[in-house]
Amino acid sequence: MKRKHKRLTFVAIALLLLGAAAALVLSAFEDSIVFFYSPTELAEKNVVDGRHVRIGGLVKEGSIKKGEGAVTLFEVTDLSNTIAVSFTGLLPDLFREGQGVVAEGKLKDGVFMASDVLAKHDENYMPPEVADALKKSGQWNTGGNPPAKEESAK
Amino acid sequence: MTAEIGHFALILALMIAAVQSVVPLVGAHRDNAEWMAIARPAALTQFGLVAISFGCLTQLYLSSDFSVLNVIQNSHTTKPMIYKIAGVWANHEGSLLLWVLILALFGSAVAAFGANLPPALKARVLSVQAMIAVGFYLFMLLTSNPFERVEVPPINGQDLNPLLQDFGLAIHPPMLYLGYVGFSMAFSFAIAALIEGRVDAAWARWVRPWTLAAWCFLTGGIVLGSWWAYYELGWGGWWFWDPVENASFMPWLAGTALLHSSTVVEKRDTLKGWTILLAIITFSLSLLGTFLVRSGVLTSVHTFASDPARGVFILALLIVVIGGSLALYAWRAPSLVSTGVFQPISREGALLLNNLIMATAAAAVLLGTLYPLMLDAVGGDKVSVGPPFFNSVFIPLMLPMIAAMAIGPMLAWKRADLKPVLARLWAAMIAAVLAMLAVWAWATDGPVMGVIGVGLAAWLFVGTLVELAGRIRLFKVPARESLRRLARTPRASWGMTLGHLGLAITIAGMSGAGAWQTESVQAMKPGETVTVAGYDFTFDGAKDGQGPNYSIVRGTFLVTKNGQPVATLDPEKRVYTVTKRPTTEAAIHSTFWGDLYAVVGDKDKATGAYVTRIYFNPLVAWMWGGVLVMVGAGITSLTDRRHRIGAPAGRRVAGTAPETVKT
């Protein structure tokens, strides 16, 4: 092969790889990007059952209940709207009423079936998504909470 | 007083670095030996000053000096000694100080031991190092001063985040930083070479030990972080594609590519421009990693309080370093002429394929990591990109690379024939098929990726052994001759063989742990038993206890298999006295075939039951073991004779590179 042809071969291989990677990225983006909703947005946007999403807000005071076995039921609120959440497993160490929380999972008949629950390792910390959700619902009153220390449970 | 000495030493270090970044560079340009000679004492003094500064901060932590803000926020008198020391770098300001300490250490190592470097190259390298250092000193002094005092000192400190009070995590940041900063040497050499307009085998040989050492440290640092997540977070997983993990993984991917392409520059005098670009990219990703983690853009265990001024400074620094070096590259790279030519099917071609795939994978990880940030910055939807994305992009990219990894080392330099090589790999093919059949027979309903992963691991493992057997002409010549060849194999070749074997073991471990993890979550009362993966876990209740600065609830599980006792597991739940923060300590019993893993949760006051979480994680020990083999391989390669005797100045000497004559 001539030098020019050889270079062309390498360029072709590189383009092929990049093309394959781009195709993989695009198809993965389609299926696996997870959108975040506040309880209000969840109510407004008619998120279909079974779609994988993240929700966030405050754990409503007095809403944590033990279900059967390792199931925990609680409610997440942005102080305008509230959504019931069901989670099976060990909750993060800092999961508590009145704390900011992010949960990942699916809606099923009006209940959010969480597969992951994230809470933050800092008393004053508010997940940025939750802070924004509270600001949107006009309930935000404290500012400048530093982001820190995330912890999650599956 | 200690704080002021530390602060002042840091300011002096900035001044020296400023001089060091300009004078030797100008000296090298004008061919002025005196100006160039300033680099050596400057680099050594700079290191001395940063060491004083770091020593001062350590002393402040050891003496629990609560007039210093940094100590207040991260320490407490009851904290055990080792975490008082680790507390120095377990925060934003201190970790930056550790960063510049390592940077200055490496710079002074070049100054002290780089006697065989051409003076102009040495001067330029040290200048570039000092430029990076100036950026960091300014960042620290202007936005993140670790020596800031408070007017009214409190009686005691606020203690370190309990999650970070752990031995694995105490040594994780220094390891990671030795890796990140080690790549700054490759970067400085690359920039110096661009300024000189010359890259040759000698250059590659000087860069290689730094890249190798950095790679070893980075690999070790990443696996320590992963190991910590495995036993401390109690989720039974070891890799979460968390942005913070990705931040350290991207430089690893680029650095691994750099390691391979620098071999080509050394042996074949080609791929020069590409290697220089990789050196720039690797260090840029290291910088990005440091700042992504430390700046507060990402929320995780690592992210300390954020401050907009820091964010702006960081962005500016990244733009100057990455933009500046890429601009220099665009301007000067065309002057780098490669002499070696090669066919697509050749050792060079295989290494280039490795490089292309690694670079593509790093780009994909970068995209997935930054996409949510970019979308948020332009006011779009809030999204998160998690493991499903990375798994479905990263794994398909890696499959062809691992398949090619067994073939590549057997190809000849310059031009090779694929058919005889594939014919020699019949044993690897049989091993792969057997492994896949065995795994499939053992778990017919498991995920197909697990079967493929184990098959590829077997293919790579046996393929690497076949290459070694071919190199020593096993069974082709008398056994004594083979042994003699084995003994004479250069350490660098051992590095390749061991590194690839280690990766094969790691892949087998990751496939096993990823595909066949068994999990069981339930509420258990004392005396109850659950069965996970054939093991019976009997919960024997929980007791209260007391640690040095925390209280403990310790659960006990008796594990039996077919009535025979296997292990006793004591997972803990700790509550740290000062911060009132709870942490989880998983109990793990490792066996050859898998880990028994138990976590105990809160007690339900009504029923007296504890929520427990029990896992069987197959082959996890293989994963850690395989990575250890890889790090060992890097160290073996680092001790190769040609690194010790130093590089011949500017000229290849026949015989010091035995691999080139092998076909």
Uncertain spans of chain B: 299-305, 647-663
Mean pLDDT value of chain A: 75
The total of helices of chain B stands at 21
Content-based structural category of chain B? alpha+beta
The greatest inter-chain interface is formed by: A-B, 48 and 56 residues
- Sheet having the most strands of chain B: 6 strands, antiparallel
Task: Find the structural class of chain A using helix and strand composition.
Answer: alpha+beta
| Residue share in helix of chain A | 25-40%
Mean pLDDT of chain B: 88
Oligomer: heterodimer
Count of extended strands of chain B: 11
Quickly count the helices of chain A.
3
CATH topology term of the domain at 35-136 in chain A: OB fold (Dihydrolipoamide Acetyltransferase, E2P)
Radius of gyration of chain B: 27 Å
Order of helices and strands of chain A: HEHEEEEEEHE
Model description:
The complex is a heterodimer of chains A (154) and B (663). Chain A has helices at residues 3-32, 39-44, 128-136, and strands spanning 33-37, 53-59, 65-66, 71-77, 82-88, 100-108, 111-120, 150-153. Chain A is of the alpha+beta class and 154 residues long. Chain A has a 5-stranded mixed beta barrel with strand order 2-4-5-7-6. Residues 299-305 and 647-663 of chain B have low confidence and may be disordered. Chain B has 663 residues and is an alpha+beta fold. Chain B contains 21 helices and 11 strands. In chain B, the strands form 2 sheets. In chain B, strands 3, 4, 5, 6, 7 and 8 form a 6-stranded antiparallel sheet that branches. Chain B has a 4-stranded antiparallel sheet with strand order 2-11-10-9, covered by helices on one side. Chain B has helices spanning 2-30, 33-37, 39-62, 69-74, 81-86, 92-113, 119-143, 167-196, 201-232, 243-268, 272-294, 308-332, 347-377, 387-407, 418-424, 426-442, 448-471, 479-488, 491-515, 620-638, 641-644, and strands spanning 383-385, 518-524, 529-532, 535-546, 550-561, 564-569, 572-576, 582-585, 587-590, 594-603, 610-618. Chain B starts with a helix and ends in a 19-residue tail after the last helix. β1 of chain A pairs antiparallel with β1 of chain B, so a sheet runs across the interface.
